[in-house]
Amino acid sequence: MGRLNGKVAIITGAGSGFGAGIAKRFAEEGAKVVLADINLKRANGIAGAIGDTAIAVQADVSRKEDIDGLVASAMDRFGRIDIMVNNAGFTHRNMPLTEVSEDNFDLIFAVNMKALYFSALAVVPIMEGQGGGSIINTASTTALRPREGLAWYNASKGWVLSATKSMALELAAKNIRANCLCPVEGDTEMLKLFLEEDTPERRTALKESIPLGRFSTPLDIANAALWLASDEASFVTGTALEVDGGYSV
After folding, report:
1. pLDDT averaged over consecutive 10-residue blocks of the chain (249 residues)?
2. Which UniProt keywords apply (predicted)?
3. 112 in a structural domain
4. From CA 140, how far away is CA 127, in angstroms rounded?
5. Torsions phi, psi for 209 (to 5 deg)
6. Is 248 inside a domain boundary?
7. In a 10 Å sphere around its CB, with 0-12 CB exposed, 13-18 middle and 19+ buried, how is residue 128 labelled?
8. Residue of 153, 194, 215, 247 marked catalytic
9. What is the residue range of 102's domain?
10. In CATH, what number is assigned to the domain containing residue 186?
11. pLDDT value of position 188
């Protein structure tokens, strides 16, 4: 028996990186998975590798109509939604806070923050009707220990942490758990944006700031998400799980 047998999960930003890792790990544990990504080709590739228990949906999480369409696709194909993983994220390049453009600031707000609002509007009534569910939001260690040069990204992830705790408090009576993950940087497409200058020396220095001496991997994050989504964490809500090799200590 898989730890997620009989459950249906939506994962946003599932075409690569942490999201792809979460989708694969959930499927290995018996879940039917809906992979959402703004890049449908990438999501289709991951879904195809998983097999018949996965579908890919193109979605821009900053648009309410796309979130509504994503949820409708999940219900049409699988008939229920047990787990919602709000993983899609965006960052500005490492730079002084006064140099971040308004367009980039607005995109951070839309993808990292407003998407959680749209998601809650769409899935909470469904989960309530089913008797419960699990919402997992990807925050960041920068919500707890900000990195210089990422001011507005740091702030958006702090918002995710606060929103998650607020959701947990309000949704507990509906048997809907809400938790967030706080990963340290991984060797993914976004890593170069966290660095003021993407050089081997800068990458080494960033890695050395992590006590366990390496970047996070999609599997690290996926295993943490799996536990939060499973019945093993049925009494866990409102937590920010640090998956960071000791960085936040």
Report:
1. 95 96 98 98 97 98 98 98 97 93 97 98 98 98 92 97 98 98 85 76 87 94 98 98 93
2. Oxidoreductase
3. yes
4. 26
5. -80, -5
6. no
7. middle
8. 153
9. 8-240
10. 3.40.50.720
11. 72
